[in-house]
Amino acid sequence: MSTQSQKSALVVSAHPGDFVWRTGGAVALHVKRGYRVKIVCLSYGARGESQGAWKQPGATLDAVKRQRHDEAQRVAELFGAEIEFFDTEDYPLDLNRAMLDRLVEVYREVQPAFVLTHASADPYNYDHPDAARFAQQARIVAQAAGHDPGAKTLGAPPVFLFEPHQPEQCDFKPNVILNIDEVWDIKRQAFEFLPAQRHLWDYYTRVALQRGAQGGRNSGRSATYGTAQGMTYGEAYQRVFPMVLEELA
Amino acid sequence: MSTQSQKSALVVSAHPGDFVWRTGGAVALHVKRGYRVKIVCLSYGARGESQGAWKQPGATLDAVKRQRHDEAQRVAELFGAEIEFFDTEDYPLDLNRAMLDRLVEVYREVQPAFVLTHASADPYNYDHPDAARFAQQARIVAQAAGHDPGAKTLGAPPVFLFEPHQPEQCDFKPNVILNIDEVWDIKRQAFEFLPAQRHLWDYYTRVALQRGAQGGRNSGRSATYGTAQGMTYGEAYQRVFPMVLEELA
Amino acid sequence: MSTQSQKSALVVSAHPGDFVWRTGGAVALHVKRGYRVKIVCLSYGARGESQGAWKQPGATLDAVKRQRHDEAQRVAELFGAEIEFFDTEDYPLDLNRAMLDRLVEVYREVQPAFVLTHASADPYNYDHPDAARFAQQARIVAQAAGHDPGAKTLGAPPVFLFEPHQPEQCDFKPNVILNIDEVWDIKRQAFEFLPAQRHLWDYYTRVALQRGAQGGRNSGRSATYGTAQGMTYGEAYQRVFPMVLEELA
Amino acid sequence: MSTQSQKSALVVSAHPGDFVWRTGGAVALHVKRGYRVKIVCLSYGARGESQGAWKQPGATLDAVKRQRHDEAQRVAELFGAEIEFFDTEDYPLDLNRAMLDRLVEVYREVQPAFVLTHASADPYNYDHPDAARFAQQARIVAQAAGHDPGAKTLGAPPVFLFEPHQPEQCDFKPNVILNIDEVWDIKRQAFEFLPAQRHLWDYYTRVALQRGAQGGRNSGRSATYGTAQGMTYGEAYQRVFPMVLEELA
Amino acid sequence: MSTQSQKSALVVSAHPGDFVWRTGGAVALHVKRGYRVKIVCLSYGARGESQGAWKQPGATLDAVKRQRHDEAQRVAELFGAEIEFFDTEDYPLDLNRAMLDRLVEVYREVQPAFVLTHASADPYNYDHPDAARFAQQARIVAQAAGHDPGAKTLGAPPVFLFEPHQPEQCDFKPNVILNIDEVWDIKRQAFEFLPAQRHLWDYYTRVALQRGAQGGRNSGRSATYGTAQGMTYGEAYQRVFPMVLEELA
Amino acid sequence: MSTQSQKSALVVSAHPGDFVWRTGGAVALHVKRGYRVKIVCLSYGARGESQGAWKQPGATLDAVKRQRHDEAQRVAELFGAEIEFFDTEDYPLDLNRAMLDRLVEVYREVQPAFVLTHASADPYNYDHPDAARFAQQARIVAQAAGHDPGAKTLGAPPVFLFEPHQPEQCDFKPNVILNIDEVWDIKRQAFEFLPAQRHLWDYYTRVALQRGAQGGRNSGRSATYGTAQGMTYGEAYQRVFPMVLEELA
């Protein structure tokens, strides 16, 4: 349960795998830092992100959804995060007004210090930009005094877009690299809860190592610059809105 | 004098006015925070940024340079910053290898925690992108072990580009807004040391107010979002390299 | 009433405030020049743009809409423009086919010499790009001979996008600055008809002054270039389609 | 009928004219090369692309559609391609879920070696980007094992966007020029099956000649570079996804 | 000779052919409208744009330059324009400070109402962007009171970039189309003064026809929109700075 | 020596490491395919890319250059490629006209079927874009009949930009992925010839694996799409000019 002073964060993910590969480090890290982290998982990815599950004899939509629900639930527990499933269809997402209203409620209840969602373009998977638009649309509605008047409105939490599968093809340009060394073992462990996407385990381990190396280089903490302490694992994000600072360094 | 633990910052400016209008708040603020701030002023802007001075009867290049030197020196003193003049010609800048080597030395001596310079494009004034390239080129050379071997090399300080006169025409997209409320009175006072550009005093006062209002809105500190404490004056920057974070909020 | 030779213009605005802050000068100026100007105001902005109104005890959606209707009506009268309300919901806009058909009719009836609407992106307010797409979609349909066959079709009026609240964040790059000196007092007076957004009065006064100063600079009419007559207030626009000219100056 | 070894291609076009002007050469060429080429024509363009037809006395929507159907059918036959009409309305396109499912079936049945569709932006005609999104959305759904489980899924055929009417205004940047010399006479003949758009015959003949000249220049086959054999007619395309090569030349 | 009230224009061209293909219509048209038009031709294009000339037996650099000088001179006379040759080498351009100073003098003497030069990128020919930068750099220096103090400075004439050979590859996005119907015969005649580039005559005739057709469409003067008077030949330009208007239509 | 029918390729690299990490696979692969591959290595990277070497006691510029020369020579031999060193200084590159002329000669002598060089932007290392511009500039000059008249000119070989260290920060968008499985062991072996950059061995192994996985996905050869044969190692390139094709698949 959230106390008044506990900070919180919100993740809006199109499918279960996304919040593991793309932002699992941020989730686990902020839980470790004492944040309440809530994940909204819009769909089970049953049609598009469950190739492995459909190879099982007698697979049905319900069975696949249940399997993915359980996997995602276990990962959320491993991370120490809350998760809520909107159970919309995927490929394509079938988002509606009631879901928008529910997401607005979630924003207002969670009052996140920051929001994590998908990038704005992905020619390989239109569910991702659709989820991103939905997440940002709901954030804006949650700020409006006239939506469900009397309810506590939302401030202006920053939005961080997480890394798509092929970043350059999605016009993704990271401006933030998060050091996830402290929680890498947890993130890596979560991969194993997703046996149907085994081919991605190594891929996203390498993504973490590349972003870690880049983080070291951009912060001057890498071996190249002769600093004692480096970083090894990272996650890349693209911050949407300008940040407001009291000091530049 | 810089003690070992004092943080420092470096500003590279094409002409004297630039470091006043575009980044005077950052300079004064970080001095107030205890930073050593060094300004490298590449030219006196004698040809291109001294329209007023040339209207005085008998104006000569030397006299105009001396006047601008004195103005810039006084502003630097007001800010509590160091200033070094490279005295290259302006319109266009006539930068050479010796100046590059000197700027590399400055980087290595100052070891800035961050760097402030011009944006990468300006169709109204090519001295600005030329200065920006020069400042960033020197930063890279200062990192190279083989340049003046044995000297202490530079780490990877972040670079912030300051706001050009007509930002959209320069493809300037701010991702950082610095709150300069604490030092606004100093920045505004500095404007008056530049009598030849009186027509810009109000212009840059309004820039500060607009960026302040945007800062409030982006941080949720503005009146719109019902928070007690807002901000009034801001300076906008575009951070060049990704930032490395241990936490997102 | 429009005579055959009277030129006309069409404004499509998501919320009432938009046509005041962003394009009030163009509306008043062209009315003064003898144009018939028609404003289509898609929503009352009751949910998202009426923060002040909801602070009144006992506020209801109907009451807020009525208040905003009256404010917008009064501003239109002040400007000498016609206004038609589509009364869709806002946050998000709930535009439908009937509204599209009605807007097509308006285009064909008004036969505007130019169209004013929102910019194509706004991460702070998705109603704005939604309105822009709707306005441009209707313009295209109005050109189609097969829509409501027999009705007079539309030519190819240019579209000007008006300035969003934080232009760089919306990828807004102005290529037109309109001199609104003649009607500035009217535009400024209109601000006061919007008491709930009092925090924007000064903001948009400064926007007008900045665009005015830039207009002077881009036309060589500013004091900097030693010309007698300058301009003081401006509005910035982004023209969507190429302009066709008989002479370049 | 498609034998196992026959290669195939799929074209998704908003209106009948589009597949003639923009990609008629590719269709005819690949048929000549032995491909099965299937065209999905989403609408008849009855409202927006049939200005000429509506000038006939007594024109009705049905009559216009029938006329355009017959024209498109004749062109497809001339090209040796299959054509399927989805008969959605145009201006705007009124695409629905059943049409998406049908297009997914087509993808899976045709198993195209490549896909041809519209560019992603067109401020003159929103039906074009709407068709492009629909075509790419369906391609992605066709890859998903969970959509109509058990059916043969689709691989990852490349997508080529064909040239819009005013390419620079649509942010169209060609990276492929197809030599259509072998089939130019067929393409040109097809123009004459579209009498209502006679004003475009010469326009698209010139487009073919310009792209041909550019193709010669980019391949070093033009007279400029002194090579014996040039090319005369071309079609420009923008390939969406990276190509995978075993050799660079 | 220029009288006080005569308007003037300045063209800065890398090679002789450029001002013919890319902007010959604008030159001839404005001369016809009573403008003084001055062309600065930076190089003779002897190395890179004279493939034909070098095929003549015994060709020397001097002879090629003389031939191109004569051709360019004849075209300028046909257009009724002045021409000044800077005779720098081409491929690459070898521009120096003395040439910059001379171009500044030309700007100040001509006081052009507008400037025509190359686009900012051209991966096929780096002389073009180099010339463009040089032309814009000189324009800025000509505005500076401190350059050759006492001389009459330049105002802020708009800059129009003319169309490169393969516009999309040069990120050229036209926002102005000039109607050159009145002078097309002159422009076409000029082509024949350039026999070495005969392969471009038809190419640039088609460019003019395409831009003419687009001009008609963008202005609603084309047959498509049922207007009596169309336009046939056009030249496309990209205006660099915002235009300042007193009225939008 | 090159026989008439042997195809060839040219690589232009700023420093020795670059042609190993970024394009070593392409070099080795095309040698294996029977190409003559020539590498022009502009500098020894002695100042900027030899951090390790400078840590050796008594290091001098000459000694460092000699060491890097030997390493690069050994790698070239391993690859079976020719290499020519221009021995310009690095950080910054100090390229001059004689070097440009020499590179033009190389282009004309090699007559490459394709060219490999750096990307056009790199805020971490300005030597890279400087080398890229130089390589492309020389290619254009080599096409000019008037440069060293009588020599055999160059055709229009395509240019492929190789992958920078942090691709998104360099606006690098790959449109070609080369399968380097056949030569991966050679590329990996070459890494070990560069002991001073040991921290990059794993980094670029992961780059190759990521590009390999993406290559599989984009070609439908990956496990995801159920095809038997995949690819494991790749190199990403950005093709500069449109490709001309006789068939799209």
From TrEMBL, chains A, B, C, D, E, F:
- Name the Pfam families on file: PIG-L (PF02585)
Entry's Gene3D superfamilies?
LmbE-like
What is an example of a GO molecular function annotated in this UniProt entry?
A: hydrolase activity, acting on carbon-nitrogen (but not peptide) bonds, in linear amides
TM segment ranges: none
Question: What SUPFAM superfamilies does this protein's entry cite?
Answer: LmbE-like
- According to the record, the signal peptide region is none
Alphabetical list of InterPro entries matching this protein: GlcNAc_PI_deacetylase-related (IPR003737), LmbE-like_dom_sf (IPR024078)
Protein's name according to its UniProt entry: PIG-L family deacetylase
| Lineage, broadest ranks | Bacteria, Pseudomonadati, Pseudomonadota, Alphaproteobacteria, Rhodospirillales
